Amino acid sequence: MQNIRVESQLIKEVQDQVKEWRRYFHRNPELSFKEENTSQFVFDQLMSFGELNVTRPTKTSVVASLVGKNPGKILGLRADMDALPIHEETNLEFASASPGVMHACGHDGHTAMLLGAAKVLSQMKDEIKGEIRFIFQHAEELPPGGAQELVEKGVVDDLDYIIGLHLMSPLPKGKIGIVYGPLTSNSDTFDLKIIGKGGHSSQPENSIDPVLISAQVINNLQQIVSRNLDPSEKLVISTTTLQAGTAKNVIPESVQIGGSVRSFCPKVREQAVSLIERIAKGVTEAHGGSYEFQYHYGYDSVVNDLELTKRVEESIVQEFGSECVVYGEGVMGGEDFSAYLKRVPGCFIPVGAGNEEKMIVYPHHHPRFDIDEEALQDGVRILVSLQKKILEY
Ligand code: NI
Q1: Choosing from 7, 140, 373, 378, which is the catalytic residue?
Q2: CATH numbers and ranges of domains, the chain
Q3: Percent of the chain with pLDDT over 70
Q4: On the chain, which terminus has fewer CB atoms closer than 10 Å, C or N?
Q5: Which residues contact 203 (CB under 8 A, 6 or more apart)?
Q6: Residue 102 Cα to ligand 1 middle (Å)
Q7: Which of 362, 329, 349, 371 is nearest to 112 (CA)?
Q8: What is the pLDDT, as a whole number, of residue 32?
Q9: Is 336 a catalytic residue?
Q10: pTM of the entire predicted model
Q11: Is position 82 annotated as part of the catalytic site?
Q12: Cα dist. 12→16, 47, 203, 243, 381 in Å?
């Protein structure tokens, strides 16, 4: 009992500092792979806690190890640190000081929460069994992503488990998401060039019109989900960019189509790739045109480990009460946490940070996105309390 009291006291003591850190990061956002100031700030703070072995595996990432008094397993806790190329419109007093760059996904909060947890756990070192590795990752927002680089550097080679949190504005503050299995989607893109034969708009008989063919291709792509896919599976195909022509009296030579494909199941992912190409081939050939197709595999789906998620759920229910838990299903977003999961069983946890009363209602990546800062303490509590259940003591 006494230890629990000490722990909650330590979390309370770090609360104001976590908020200050979050505001500092929010005011000073940096884009993916350019987190120089942020990572230096994180490094300096971690060094000041005194108990950590701190390293810089890449130019803008930081990893700190806390080795407990008693031997045991190794748990990784991960936060992402990068901001987005968005111009902030929140009017917050600590709004971005860099025009066109904004923490619009909550990564400022993730970094601050993990720093808070590192500080608290450093003060509890004698009780910890095993090792806790704090992973401050760069470049989550920009494929190929920072997670993959850290995996290649061997940062997670000897981990037994890995945990990540994500503050979520669509989830009310005080709620914590538990998702068994797939949580985010495979997030891919494609480029499709429809090639016809250019000419004068008044002489279609001497041309092959790639604009008309493209219209049919785009329409037909929507039949993949409605007609080819098993209705119990999930798939989204969106054509999102379209470039054609330069003059109103010219039939252009070609049209460029771009799009995004989201799926959960690897089989469905491959089905989408071959069906997009089959439609492009069939429709263009039917009208005498041709095509070029490139499919770009993005982040894989984050799939939570069932056994670890069970333990996470038990820990959260114990700490916050069962009324706080929301059992979610996967969402069609992308997240490079999946790169770690190819090596280590892990669990990714959505943490409620929305608040209608405070008008914190905007979606992620919106210029007015914000988080309820009260959620920061929830995140620190989750990270600090989880490790007991996972490292088993
Ligand atoms: Ni994010």
Answers
A1: 140
A2: 2-182+301-391 (3.40.630.10), 186-299 (3.30.70.360)
A3: 98
A4: N
A5: none
A6: 12
A7: 371
A8: 98
A9: no
A10: 0.91
A11: yes
A12: 8, 21, 76, 55, 10
